[in-house]
Write a structure and sequence with these properties.
about 50% helix, 5 strands, 2 domains, transcription, about 240 residues, alpha+beta, Arc Repressor Mutant, subunit A, single chain, TF_LuxR_autoind-bd_dom_sf, 5-stranded antiparallel beta sheet, DNA-binding, Beta-Lactamase
């Protein structure tokens, strides 16, 4: 196992080689694994979680849990997110105050996805926006706390870099709003349907589908459907299903 200075030096060396967001995204998981972290997420809010209509989540949490979490807007009452919005200090979830116990059902639900205890590092922007790195483990992982303690400096550095590279996507994701029709078009095209097939399914013209796709492409500053789908997926903008 690497301890403090050793792991920090390794992370620093890796970061020096990173020149873009894509490069950071491709290696952050390996660097966190080296710190003893198996489950993680970076979360961003441009406004208070209680007022947010969506949340940006990047990481390797189970996609089914992320879908439920976003759909049910659990972030509005998640004790971990609420605490992250209030402080700039890292904290173990076990240290959350008793007033959050009423919301423990979120932890009960997350239990099925291997998210039972964790450690969070908030990073606040000027104003109300903030990002936070959350690393999680199962309750029976007896060495989780010691691994976090041994790698605190490296984890702090990684959280700063995550915020640097990912917060812009977070701001765009939470501020960009697709209409219901746009989301429906995006969903069907992302499922491999042609514009013509999507038009038949939706009961509209192919020309209208193209109009909505072009409108969304402009919102995300991309030039074609392939780029639109890829960027929308990375920003969690594609609905899990449509009515």
């Amino acid at each position: 196992m690497w301890y403090r200075g050793g792991m920090l030096n390794i992370v620093e060396d890796r970061i020096k080689e990173i020149a873009s967001k894509d490069e950071f995204e491709s290696c952050i998981e390996d660097m966190l694994f080296s710190c003893g972290v198996e489950r993680y997420s970076y979360v961003y809010f441009p406004i208070s979680p209680s007022q947010a209509s969506d949340v940006y989540i990047f990481g390797n949490y189970d996609i089914n849990w992320v879908d439920i979490y976003k759909k049910e807007r659990f972030y509005r009452k998640d004790p971990v997110i609420i605490e992250s919005s209030r402080t700039s200090l890292p904290f173990y979830w076990s240290k959350l105050s008793g007033e959050t116990e009423k919301d423990s059902n979120i932890f009960d639900l997350a239990h099925d996805y291997g998210i039972e205890k964790g450690y969070s590092i908030p990073i606040h922007d000027p104003g109300s926006g903030f990002g936070s790195i959350h690393v999680a483990a199962e309750l029976n992982d007896a060495k989780f706390e010691s691994r976090i303690k041994d790698n605190l400096y490296a984890l702090r550095l990684l959280s700063i870099m995550a915020h640097h590279y990912l917060s812009l996507d977070g701001m765009m994701s939470c501020s960009i709003c697709f209409s219901g029709r746009e989301e429906e078009c995006l969903y069907w095209v992302s499922q491999g349907k042609t514009y013509g097939e999507a038009a038949i399914i939706m009961g509209i013209t192919e020309r209208t589908v193209k109009f909505h796709m072009n409108s969304m492409a402009k919102k995300l500053n991309v030039v074609n459907a392939k780029q639109l789908i890829a960027k929308s997926m990375s920003m969690n903008l594609i609905p899990a299903r449509v009515k």
